[in-house]
Design a protein that fits this description.
The chain is built from 2 helices and 6 strands. It binds ligand 2BA.
Length: 109
């Protein structure tokens, strides 16, 4: 068994949730925050049999799209000067950042 952890953009989260249910995957959604953009994203935890991992990855890929996002300059007065960015920066946020972990035990009491 494997645990798939997928960080996706909030805009894709409802579509991905529905697609996972349609393909009979069980998932838990967590509201998370990206360390770099410090804006909201959604993390899915999907436990599944090894044999279904590729199908789950395909469903994730098909339902999440990458987008360019602009980071506005952040005033150093507002907080930590270490994170001060003096000019707008455009970054491409991926459709999904995915980790696949082995599961030692699974219980559903
Ligand atoms: P954020 O950390 O908010 O990052 C958003 C996007 O900003 C990233 O997209 C990347 O294009 C850019 N970025 C991140 N860190 C950067 C840096 N130090 N310098 C320059 N650009 C940087 P993605 O790579 O597609 O990541 C999307 C989200 O997935 C991330 O949001 C974070 O929440 C998660 N993520 C990505 N890589 C991860 C990792 N190795 N471990 C844990 N979470 C990760």
């Amino acid at each position: 068994m494997k645990l798939i952890i997928a960080v996706v953009q909030d805009q894709d989260s409802n579509r991905l949730s529905k697609a996972l249910v349609d393909h009979n995957f069980r998932a838990t959604k967590l509201a998370t925050t990206g360390g770099f953009l410090k804006s909201g994203n959604t993390t899915f935890m999907i436990g599944t049999e090894d044999i279904r991992v590729n199908k789950a990855l395909q469903v994730i890929k098909e339902n999440c799209q990458s987008r360019d996002q602009l980071i506005a300059p952040v005033s150093p007065m507002g907080g930590n000067a270490d994170s001060y960015i003096p000019y707008p920066v455009e970054v491409e946020v991926g459709g999904a950042t995915v980790f696949v972990l082995p599961i030692e035990e699974f219980h559903n009491f």
